[in-house]
TrEMBL record:
Domain Alpha/beta hydrolase fold-3 residues, every copy: 223-460
Source organism phylogeny: Eukaryota, Fungi, Fungi incertae sedis, Mucoromycota, Mortierellomycotina
Record-linked Gene3D superfamilies: alpha/beta hydrolase
Source superkingdom: Eukaryota
UniProt protein name: Alpha/beta hydrolase fold-3 domain-containing protein
SUPFAM superfamilies: alpha/beta-Hydrolases (SSF53474)
Length: 590
């Protein structure tokens, strides 16, 4: 209050107010008679017949009732939490969000404490407190997001490195034969982007001998908003994949922004792929006798890097072997805060509707429909508790850095959603999984629609490219594996997809003519006939057909949407924000 009276609300004024209140309390205890002022003396006589325990419980009950008087008297808005959580998210995701929010708030609160052992202890204590007071956790997190820095993000997002959480992860994870970090050295003289050392984490279920003879690897690029989270922060699901697939997981600890803004981290990820191919895996401890089959995977910002690395692989000369498959989990394909879907992107979606790949009713109830004024998911879910608009802005500014010449609306290494058709047509089998309520979900929808259009134009394989939208969840559901048992099944399904990518043999491709769409794309990019010959390929048959188990297909049918049947639900979210009651939606299984 004092800060507002002074016209300068700040933590400093809050501290002054707290000191003033404590001093006033001290004066009241020491200078005023023990029985208190005359009105309180009567109350003192009245309370003599009660025990201290009864007085304590009565006082706490009175305070609790006063604090919730608006709820008890029906003076609150029309159930805002029901509209935000119960209708928006499934029960399982809501529980995970509650736990992660409490952890975030606890780690934010303790971040200034020294030494580290005391900070770790108090972060656990504060997190338990916020579990009992979830509204306070949301308030704390929202306050921190207004002044968020890279240090704040790392302290909060890297909570998986806390000793207690690491112990829980180890107890629940499969026992692995190999889990270690190695350093890969890159040099400009060797044809790489910079002289640097990159740490990669290797996880494998088998023995050292089995690892050395491995002919397949899963190359993982972990997410973390481009600024935080090493592979060990993703250990819960990476170890689960290693145990499930019996395939080595190689996860890259690339340099993070803002110290290393675009394109440093991206270049390191590409260079690691390039070195693995050049050495046939010898740089990471394989025998190096055969070219390993590589499935490229990434979540969130790692999904962005995965697509950008794929673009670099396709454009590289001399030609590099492509991954056998590409997996992206809730990727950010457009590094920007535009709240509208452009007419050109809308046309791509409408084309997919006409072809039957997307149900025809997806745009009928869309708010702002028409003439470039169709709102996207970043607008629909701008109040998201994980990726709110102010938080996204901070991440993007730190990632792009101070490069004033960088055009993020055309650079398809920054924003893969702008990848031209002649590159998209050469993508390998691709699997994207994202949340229905994720602010980034439209990125995945538009990217997949563009890729299908590009591949269709050249007669490439479309059957194995899959977009799954998990009902009733937002961002970061892979991080909830250790705290929400329901999410373990989702991780298992994604592991099955990776295993199917690795196990299915590739089919040799032959050269044929390109379609009109890709030729036009090449002309727009200024490519010549030589460039056309270099990329002029078409698969004879399905290059990597999807052959997942019946259990996975049943899971997808029950818990996900096969395309983009989410816009009616988004309309409900808008109406909820306006306070317009629609209908109860208690569905959701996860």
């Amino acid at each position: 209050m004092l800060g507002h009276i002074a016209g300068r609300p700040s933590p400093s004024w809050d501290k002054i107010q707290a000191i003033v209140v404590l001093l006033m309390s001290y004066v009241a205890l020491r200078k005023v008679p023990a029985a208190g002022p005359r009105p309180f003396q009567r109350l003192h006589n009245l309370l003599k017949k009660y025990t201290p325990w009864q007085i304590l419980i009565g006082a706490l009950t009175t305070l609790y009732a006063a604090h919730h008087a608006d709820l008890l008297l029906g003076l609150t808005p029309a159930e805002p939490e029901k509209k935000m959580f119960s209708r928006r998210y499934t029960p399982g995701y809501t529980r995970g969000l509650w736990i992660l929010s409490a952890l975030d708030a606890g780690f934010f609160t303790s971040q200034s404490i020294r030494p580290k052992i005391l900070r770790d202890t108090m972060s656990a204590v504060f997190s338990v407190f916020y579990l009992f007071f979830p509204k306070r956790a949301v308030e704390k997190n929202n306050m921190m997001l207004k002044v968020i820095t890279a240090t704040h993000m790392r302290r909060s997002w890297e909570k998986m490195l806390h000793p207690v959480i690491r112990l829980m992860t180890w107890v629940n994870a499969p026992r692995l034969g190999i889990r270690r970090e190695i350093v890969v050295r890159l040099t400009k003289e060797g044809g790489y982007h910079s002289d640097s050392e990159v740490v990669v984490t290797i996880m494998f279920k088998g023995s050292e001998e089995e690892y050395a003879r491995s002919e397949s690897i899963i190359l993982d690029i972990p997410g973390g908003g481009f600024v935080a989270m090493r592979p060990s922060c993703h250990a819960d699901y990476l170890m689960a994949w290693a145990g499930q697939t019996n395939v080595p997981i190689v996860s890259i600890d690339y340099k993070k922004a803002p110290e290393f803004p675009f394109p440093h981290g991206l270049n390191e990820c590409f260079d690691i792929y390039k070195m693995i191919v050049a050495t046939k895996g010898a740089c990471i401890g394989l025998e190096g006798s055969v070219q390993p089959r590589i499935a490229l995977a990434g979540d969130s910002a790692g999904g962005t890097f995965s697509a950008s690395v794929m673009n670099m692989i396709i454009e590289h000369r001399p030609v590099l072997p492509k991954p056998v498959g590409l997996l992206m989990v809730y990727p950010c394909m457009h590094v920007g805060l535009d709240f509208w879907i452009s007419n050109s992107d809308l046309a791509v979606i409408e084309e997919e509707i006409e072809r039957g790949h997307i149900p025809e009713d997806i745009l009928k109830a869309r708010p702002g429909r028409g003439d470039g004024m169709t709102l996207n998911s970043k607008a629909a879910f701008m109040d998201d508790q994980v990726l709110g608009s102010s938080f996204l802005r901070a991440l993007m500014v730190m990632y792009i850095g101070g490069d004033t010449k960088l055009d993020h609306k055309s650079n398809y290494l920054v924003s893969p959603i702008y990848t031209p058709d002649h590159i998209l047509a050469q993508y390998p089998r691709t699997y994207i999984i994202t949340g229905e309520k994720d602010p980034l979900v439209d990125d995945s929808i538009i990217f997949m629609a563009k890729m299908r259009r590009a591949k269709r134009a050249v007669g490439a394989d479309l059957e194995s490219d899959t977009l799954r939208i998990v009902s009733g969840v937002s961002h970061a559901f892979m991080q909830m594996t250790g705290v929400v048992p329901e999410m373990k099944e989702l991780v298992r399904v994604v592991g099955e997809e990776l295993l199917d990518m690795i196990k299915t043999p590739q089919v040799v491709q032959s050269k044929e003519a390109w379609g009109d769409a890709s030729l036009q794309s090449l002309k727009e990019e200024g490519k010549g006939e030589l460039d056309l010959m270099q990329v002029n390929v078409r698969p004879v048959t399905l290059s990597n057909p999807r052959q997942t188990s019946a259990a996975v297909l049943r899971w997808e049918q029950e818990y996900t949407r096969d395309a983009v049947t989410i816009y009616e639900h988004r309309r409900v979210a808008y109406l909820d924000q306006l306070g317009i009651d629609t209908h109860d939606d208690d569905s959701g299984h996860i």
